[in-house]
């Protein structure tokens, strides 16, 4: 079991720096760090977290998607450690959806992301993997990979009018869920 790490917030220079490749994923320090990332992500109700978000400039992130208070409709996946990732293909189709970030508390934005991506990365066991992700999992992957390249979701929004506070976002998704329940009943 890992320990909970402090999360860096917008304005800290590490969030704007390209992270370094991980040379030996099987190093005990890297393995312990992955455990810490997973623990921090779970404790924060995140669906993903990248190394720069905890003040470490390594090309590692976690995807740990599950329904929670921040993302009530999230699918189940993870936690999965993604090391030295790259996108090898992305669909032309983009979808706008709400994103938040543990490093930018209190704000959500509508962010356009590729609907489907193909990726390559190493697992925490050092295995090279190629995979395809779509929809919400593809969104998480792109969001976390951006962190490794010094990009935050605010850099990706089309219009500042597509930003809301966390409280307003919670009100919006509660309303959407209630309207969805009414459609199912009707």
Features:
alpha+beta, Peptide Deformylase, globular, 186 residues, five-stranded antiparallel β-sheet
Plain-language structure description:
The protein is of the alpha+beta class. It has a single domain, classed as Alpha-Beta Complex (Peptide Deformylase), CATH 3.90.45.10. It has 3 helices and 8 strands. It has helices spanning 28-43, 135-148, 166-185; strands at residues 48-50, 60-65, 77-90, 94-99, 107-114, 116-122, 128-134, 163-165. Strands 1-2-3-6-7 form a 5-stranded antiparallel sheet, sandwiched between helices. It has a 3-stranded antiparallel sheet with strand order 4-5-8. A hairpin with a 5-residue loop joins strand 6 and strand 7. The protein is globular. The chain starts with 27 loop residues before the first helix and ends with a helix.
